[in-house]
Amino acid sequence: MDENSFSFNHGVDIENDGGSYLERKESSYLERRESNTSMYSDREGVVREPLLKSRINTTSQIAIVGANVCPIESLDYEIIENELFKQDWRSRKKVQIFQYVFLKWALALLIGLSTALVGFFNNLAVENIAGFKLLLTSNLMLADKYYQAFAAFAGLNMILAICAGVLCALIAPAAAGSGIPEVKAYLNGVDAHSILAPSTLLVKIFGSVFGVAAGFVVGKEGPMVHTGACIANLLGQGGSRKYHLTWKWLRFFKNDRDRRDLITCGAAAGVAVAFRAPVGGVLFALEEAASWWRSALLWRTFFTTAVVAMVLRSLIQFCKSGKCGLFGQGGLIMFNVNSANPSYNTADLLAIMLIGVLGGILGSLYNYLVDKVLRTYSIINERGPAFKILLVIVVSLLTSCCAYGLPWFAACTPCPTDLDVQCPTIGRSGNYKNFQCAEGHYNGLASLFLNTNDDAIRNLFSSTNKNEFHISALFIFFAAVYFLGVITYGIAIPSGLFIPVILAGASYGRLLGRLLGSFASLDVGLFGLLGAASFLGGTMRMTVSLCVILLELTNDLLMLPLMMLVLLISKTVADSFNKGVYDQIVKMKGLPYMEAHAEPYMRQLVASDVCSGPLISFSGVEKVGNILHALRMTRHNGFPVIDEPPFADAPELCGLVLRSHLLVLLNAKKFTKNRVLTRTEYLRMFHAFDFGKAGSGKGLKVEDLDINEEEMEMYVDLHPITNTSPYTVVETMSLAKAAVLFRELGLRHVCVVPKTPGRPPIVGILTRHDFMPEHVLGLYPDIHPHK
């Protein structure tokens, strides 16, 4: 991993006074650690697992990705300015620069096209599979075969749920859950091999289809964001040496910085596909997903989502001809509510403010309950795949019992006489489900439960019949969806939070609209929309992107002022209780996420206070055996390089060398018997792309090196691969200031240098782990975290 916080003194010299300084540093550090905390006592050996055993985030090098506990490391977003990079940059011709720019736009086009096709397939499959299940259930009920109808409904749900559970539990555990917290962490600089792996992509696609079609109260929107990110990562791998699919043009993308931009485009494309909201997708990536943003990236994400919008429009036009089976009026079609007139008065504004407050309270409670359920499920999931699948089966049965059983308690309603549509509905979708009612009557609760989630939302947003759903039916549906949404998130299937939240919000919004019918002039369908907005704001704490997504989703620009008011109120109320749901899940999973702001207590500390020692460093020309020993004994990803006499008048910091670069250099075996500079020879021998990052964690490992005893005594020149301009901070800089610098520049390592002369040229290295509250407060338990 990349933490340079815990290291071994393996005999690399930093001159005499440096050695004594580091020994003093080590001694004081260890005394402080032993007296303050035992939680971090075995960092290099056994690390605590987040959410497991202790149920706390120890910011170890292990985190939960999906439903899988796996090792994590940081990403190298910084440009490594070594001599090879400078030579490559100087020698680039105009045609190569054009190729690079052209490829960035071409890949953005491919990401948009691929994500749109996958999203369309997703919806096509869900609508047809769920449609077949609902048609079969409806036909059996029309024939008065109620027990057979339940058996068919629950049985098909369970089969689909088991398929999704098996895929997630056995093939790609990282595909479980929403995926948005993992993508958010990746764009913040946290990597795990399984986050964006091809197996995760495949399981995310098919698992999402099976999970949503199985009737779970989950959405496909969160998984679509993860899917878009996986597609972008796959396209931006720079080819594959293993399968001989390398293309020299793609080598430009063998770095984390360009992959980050592509994955940001993929995340935006996922939202654009899920909601048919291209502008909302860009704003979602800006507001929620990405940690670093610039104008060039804005253009490319906008282009990507524009491609998505055009492809989807073409495909939906094709499906309107009836060639897509049961798909057509289902997923990807806007919830058009612009038939209602959004004129409002003072009483309406008071009602809307009430919805905002209610959304904030219910949203923060939802986040609290999801947190508790996830921690409980982790106890079950850690027992193995069989228990994960068993949990999926139990939740599936519970969902089926609720969806089929609760409508029996609802009263039948006579069909309105002035309808343009058929009542009761015969078929898979529609507002008026017959269920067990007599001819000419419909069951309002069945119209919500025995439908796809998209159709249920469309029914709740409907403005055609104010009294379509009884107040009791809306309350029962809200309570059931709220409860099922909480217990479903966390099982081993791909599951999004958007749809459960929209369903619950729309139901209590419409319920409030019915209760305030005599006071408010707004339509109940618009109340449903505002309720959905308030609950989204209360759980996810987004404002601008949610506002635009909902406006694009409903095609009703006149609702903009009301939507803004509701989102601002719900977010403000909810923020006073807890954090947004994705922020909570990121923390809960143990992902070391760097916030945009520093914690207040960090102003009481300076950079050197959290530096760990002793520090491992290399000479500019180092013995091969020393390097190999350091690589084997530690998992650090960055090592300071110190120039010493005769290569410098006094010890001075030459720069920082990465572990991956050292492995490539040692694997080439270009060693010398004496301590001499060989940079000119290396510049002829190597190219900057030889040190490019391999895709999907397939790079060299220390176990792959084959170095004999004779070579261990030889020397290697590290100057050509050393980043000669690493970011440095003086040891007296406040930790808060260093944290902001680290986050804003997207760094992996920051070198801490001494303020006074006559000391070793480097005090220590700060990594992501050193800024984590658990680590800092573990070292200094007397500091109040809120001061």
Topology:
Blueprint: H1 15-36, E1 62-65, E2 68-71, E3 73-74, H2 83-91, H3 94-142, H4 146-171, H5 180-188, E4 190-191, H6 198-213, H7 221-235, H8 256-275, H9 278-289, H10 295-323, H11 346-381, H12 385-405, E5 412-414, E6 441-443, H13 444-449, H14 453-460, H15 471-488, H16 498-515, H17 524-540, H18 544-554, H19 560-575, H20 581-588, E7 618-619, E8 621-623, H21 624-633, E9 638-643, E10 652-658, H22 659-668, H23 679-685, H24 709-712, E11 715-717, E12 728-730, H25 735-745, E13 750-753, E14 764-766, H26 773-779
Parallel strand pairs: 7-9, 12-13
Antiparallel strand pairs: 1-2, 3-4, 5-6, 8-11, 9-10, 13-14
Helix pairs in contact: 3-4, 3-6, 3-7, 3-8, 3-10, 4-6, 4-12, 5-20, 6-7, 7-8, 8-9, 8-10, 9-10, 9-18, 11-17, 11-19, 11-20, 12-15, 14-16, 15-16, 16-17, 17-19, 18-19
Structural summary, described in words:
The model is unreliable at 1-60 (pLDDT under 50). Strand 12, helix 25 (735-745) and strand 13 (750-753) form a beta-alpha-beta unit. Helix content is 53%, strand content 6%. The chain is built from 26 helices and 14 strands. Helix 3 (94-142) packs antiparallel against helix 4 (146-171), helix 3 packs parallel to helix 6 (198-213) and helix 4 packs antiparallel against helix 6. The radius of gyration is 29 Å and the shape is elongated. It starts with 14 loop residues before the first helix and ends in an 8-residue tail after the last helix. With 787 residues, the protein is mostly helical. It has a 3-stranded mixed β-sheet with strand order 7-9-10. Its main location: membrane. Belongs to the chloride channel (TC 2.A.49) family.
